[in-house]
Write a structure and sequence with these properties.
The chain is α/β, with parallel strands linked by helices and 174 residues long. It is built from 6 helices and 8 strands, in the order βααβαβαββαββαβ. A 6-stranded parallel β-sheet has the order 3-6-7-2-1-8. Strands 4-5 form a two-stranded antiparallel sheet. A hairpin with a 2-residue loop joins strand 4 and strand 5. Helix 2 crosses helix 3. The protein starts with a strand and ends in a 6-residue tail after the last strand.
């Protein structure tokens, strides 16, 4: 799953800031991602499993996701603890499948604020965090430099399973 706001790259190059229209698109995408990825603690296969976002919008997207109930793990040691807790090789640890985000965070020593629906963490595009389907309210966010890179990575993450992909953009041509 990757998100790109219409014209963001051109905006960044010209003005070094996002216009209000693009900001609203990112706000909506962030809200939709949190709601979708945390629905039923991420058990349905149609829930978002990872986000590949253009570098130009990633910080704003994460900020808006936190405003909508996500908890961002930033400490690399805590991210490593989370991965060790929920991933075993190329598979999710089944004891954690479908558990609430607050329960998972508590297991790694983090007290989640009330209303936490989803755990987000920025990750490089590599196993295990990005490429293992966790079926938990945990969402890796990967920065892509270009739309082509994001699309290539999206194809790799679905492992040829022909799973659902969403592209949030108003852009009709590239």
């Amino acid at each position: 799953l990757f998100y790109q706001a219409d014209g963001v790259i051109q905006d960044i190059v010209r003005s070094r800031r996002l216009g209000n229209v693009y900001k609203r698109q990112i706000e909506k995408a962030a809200r939709d991602i949190v709601l979708g990825s945390s629905f039923d603690n991420n058990l349905p296969c149609t829930d978002e499993k990872e986000v590949i976002a253009l570098d130009a919008i990633t910080d704003l997207l994460k900020f808006e996701m936190v405003k909508n109930g996500a908890y961002e793990l930033r400490d690399p040691a805590l991210i490593d603890k989370l991965v060790a807790l929920v991933v075993n090789g190329r598979h999710a640890v089944t004891d954690w499948v479908g558990k609430d985000a607050s329960v998972i965070l508590e297991a790694i020593g983090v007290l989640a604020p009330a209303g936490t629906r989803l755990i987000i963490a920025e990750a490089p595009f590599e196993p295990p965090f990005v490429r293992v389907e966790l079926m938990m309210p945990i969402l890796a966010i990967v920065r892509a430099a270009t739309l082509d890179q994001a699309m290539d990575w999206a194809a790799i993450t679905e492992h040829g399973n022909r799973d659902t992909e969403a592209h949030d953009s108003q852009q009709r041509e590239q």
